[in-house]
Design a protein that fits this description.
By secondary structure, this protein is mainly alpha-helical. The chain is 51% helix and 9% strand.
Length: 341
């Protein structure tokens, strides 16, 4: 069985921008690591003018970990406000909530039928997030990469921004595309990875651990007040000695702080080291605190100005646009697999 091939563009027809898809889970307040690792890149990709961007709130994915249902609606709206305050423009990009486009879950089921269990068992993130718990592991965590594939394939995404930790999942998506197209005919576009320079920030109170909302004392949240930011940074652990130097092995704490300073200021780490040569940790921390405060002030001000109605409208409009595209694709898939009468 084959499906209708894409019709070649007429000579002189305007070239369509490649589709780009990515999302963030609504699991609580975003922190600086989330911003530098994802949100900041999303805004840059949108503003580059190179892509037709779909950014979503991955609420279905967030259900794979324990949560309070009463908190989820506010988490979704707060994340939407973060997207908008950071610079995502709902007139330039399509911003929506994953669960408000049922085609995501529908396509995931169909993709499950071409996904071997063995391939899912090899997923590194599944093992790291509890995949060794045997029968106690929820099936959603196991099946997470298939839903991720559906998120991407519904919109004919040509590129997906990924860090190293998502490479394996995207490669599975590419494998599923080849397997599905071979079995049912050309239906899906095979997405390509768009590698971003993801900055992995470590906790301020323990540079051996990744910055996480579960360790609030070592986490810089995007909504933290200036006084809180200064307090956290001044209390951040440091390494032995008093030289402001980045040495991954010998000075992991200072390396982390210098990376934050550099990422937000745009100043090279080596130049920051020169600036604070002979000045000690205390003065450096004061400087870093001001860099963080000044960098987050525009975001915080923009978020405070956002009225709930504006956020809701952006999500409603985005969901409507996303559903139109997703339903069309799902119908094509149903025809490919023989489910259309």
């Amino acid at each position: 069985m084959t499906t209708k091939k894409l019709t070649p563009k007429a000579e002189g027809a305007p070239k369509r921008k490649p589709v780009l898809v990515s999302g963030i889970q609504p699991t609580g307040k975003l922190h600086l690591g989330n911003y530098l690792g994802a949100l900041k890149h999303f805004v840059e990709l949108q503003n580059s003018g190179k892509y037709n961007c779909y950014f979503f709130i991955a609420d279905l994915h967030s259900m794979t970990e324990a949560y309070n249902p009463d908190e989820k609606p506010s988490q979704i709206l707060d994340l939407a406000a973060d997207y908008l305050a950071a610079g995502i423009d709902s007139k330039q990009s399509i911003l929506f909530v994953q669960s408000e486009v049922p085609a995501h879950a529908e396509l995931a089921w169909i993709l499950n039928t071409v996904t071997p269990i063995g391939e899912l068992k090899r997923m590194t993130q599944f093992k790291e997030k509890g995949g060794t718990d045997g029968d106690a592991t929820n099936a959603g965590l196991f099946d997470y990469p298939v839903l991720m594939a559906a998120d991407i394939l519904l919109y004919n995404a040509a590129v997906v921004p990924v860090g190293d930790d998502q490479d394996q999942h995207l490669e599975l998506t590419r494998t599923l595309v080849r397997r599905f197209n071979k079995r049912y005919g050309d239906t899906f576009v095979e997405p390509q990875p768009l590698h971003t320079n993801v900055l992995r920030l470590m906790s301020l109170d323990d540079p051996r651990r990744k910055m996480s909302k579960s360790r609030s004392a070592g986490c810089l949240f995007l909504d933290d007040e200036p006084a809180v930011i200064r307090k956290k940074i001044m209390r951040a652990v440091t390494d032995s000695g008093n030289e402001v130097l980045a040495e991954v092995e010998g000075k992991p704490a200072m390396t982390n702080l210098l990376l934050i300073y550099s990422a937000l200021s745009g100043i090279a780490v080596r130049d920051i080291e020169k600036k604070y040569a002979g000045k000690g940790y205390g003065e450096f921390k004061k400087g870093l605190a001001e860099v963080v405060v000044n960098s987050l002030t525009p975001f915080q001000a923009a978020k405070k100005k956002l009225k709930p109605a504006i956020v809701e409208k952006a999500l409603d409009d985005g969901a409507k646009q996303a559903r139109t595209v997703a339903i069309k694709k799902l119908r094509e898939v149903y025809a490919s697999v023989g489910l259309m009468r």
